[in-house]
Design goal:
This protein has eleven helices and ten strands. The protein is an alpha/beta fold. Helix 10 packs across helix 11. The radius of gyration is 18 Å and the shape is globular. It starts with 9 loop residues before the first strand and ends with a helix. About 40% of the residues are buried.
Length: about 250
């Protein structure tokens, strides 16, 4: 990874708010994937979209050779867009700062986008630890993933298709990643292309939200917040804001 490579082929965007604890682990995994990249590590551009952090996230990112884009609007969609707009690569990917990517990620993305039938997709992910509560929660989302081809991990597409999709919807305070995949799928349909889920290169996701709120909280808390939010119940938006935008870090 270099700061001054004039023509990166692939740009990886990392939205980050106070991520000095988790970012080094992700960047270690990115370095390994870049070393294995068939085009060479010099053709990978890493962009950290610093979303108004108050810790040393930006300093750490610069020290590790990343480009840092400062995004003051505290919104995950805005951070993703800020990094995406700054990307110079023909291919752009997005990954959360508390994940670790598979060593074969970049080559797998290249192989997928070499097809004239694929508009983009995601690598999928597994969890850094498991319990009964986590397994039930994970299983609950699988039917939707199978049905829609929407997944998480490293989400990727060609930069021109990111732009055609309009980026991430900044009006959404959550589920902006799902909204983007809907938009990207629409772009793909106009081109006769589809989304894909890669095999064998799953990212590893942190379970910090479960560590903080309990392994069953997605089943015991999140559904009630969602229903209350949809029916515009007082306090629902505040609970969601605190969960997603006021983490204990």
């Amino acid at each position: 990874m270099t700061l001054d490579n004039p023509l990166p082929r692939l740009s990886l965007v990392i939205p980050a708010y106070n991520e000095e604890r988790f970012l080094p682990g992700l960047l270690d995994s990115v370095d390994e994937a870049a070393r294995r990249y068939a085009h060479g590590a010099a053709f990978v551009e890493i962009i950290v979209a610093d979303n108004a952090s108050t810790d040393r996230t930006a300093e750490l990112a610069v020290r590790r050779g990343c480009r840092v884009v400062h995004v003051e609007k505290r919104c995950i969609a805005a951070a993703r867009n800020g990094g995406g707009k700054a990307a110079r690569g023909e291919i752009v990917g997005f990954v959360d700062a508390d994940m670790r990517i598979h060593p074969g990620t970049f080559d797998a993305i290249e192989k997928a986008l070499a097809s004239d039938r694929i508009v983009g997709g995601a690598t999928g992910c597994t969890l850094e630890r498991w319990s009964l509560g986590l397994a039930v929660t994970f299983a609950m989302f699988l039917p939707m993933v199978w049905l829609t081809k929407f997944d998480t991990g490293v989400v990727f597409c060609r930069r021109r298709d990111f732009e055609a999709a309009g980026g991430y919807n900044e009006a959404l305070r959550l589920a902006e990643d799902v909204g983007f995949l809907f938009a990207l799928r629409r772009v793909g349909r106009t081109q006769g292309k589809r989304l894909t889920r890669l095999k064998g290169v799953k990212a590893v996701a942190s379970t910090r939200k479960f560590d903080e709120h309990g392994d069953w909280h997605y089943l015991t808390t999140i559904p009630f917040w969602t229903i209350a939010y949809l029916f515009k119940r007082s306090g629902a938006l505040g609970e969601i804001e605190r969960y997603w935008y006021e983490p204990r870090r």
